[in-house]
UniProtKB/TrEMBL annotation:
InterPro entries: DUF3558 (IPR024520). It holds the Pfam family DUF3558. The lineage of its organism: Bacteria, Bacillati, Actinomycetota, Actinomycetes, Pseudonocardiales. Keywords: Signal. It comes from Saccharopolyspora gregorii. Residues 1-25 form the signal peptide. This is DUF3558 domain-containing protein.
Amino acid sequence: MNAIPRKAGLALLAVGMLASVSGCALDSRADGESAVEEPVRTVGLAKVDPCTMLTEQELAARGGRPPGYPNNDIAAEPGCDFDGDPFGYSFYKNQEMTVERYGERDVWSRFERSELDGRPAAITVVRGSASARICSTMFDAGGGVITVTAQETDDEGRDECAESWQVAELIAAKSPR
């Protein structure tokens, strides 16, 4: 069953790769002036561990099975994958992005802006991942963004977007502003 959350992780991996590859163009200037480089954030989400965003009891109550599997395929977007039934989960953090900046990407079949715990949020589906029953909720936290992905492990028509939102609510309540 380890493959289910890995699939969710792969979907976010693709998003992260697209974000990191195209991110350079955001600060390019037509007038030839160089952009002022922002220092990499060293606070905020730096101490947040994606594998401990939920307690073992919170995960188990939703069918998740700890321990999680660290997913550090993208340095700027460390994450953790969890097997589970009826959903597998992946949690990621990114100190370099925000919900607004992710929304500028042309990778979404669904990007529904909202607010979660008083902060910008979005329910997202990457193009091509809807048939795999993968949905994410992302929200601004600690100067960056946290992404919660849920993937239905068996195709029984459960709402993976509602699930990712509910899990994100649990995590947001404990996350830095």
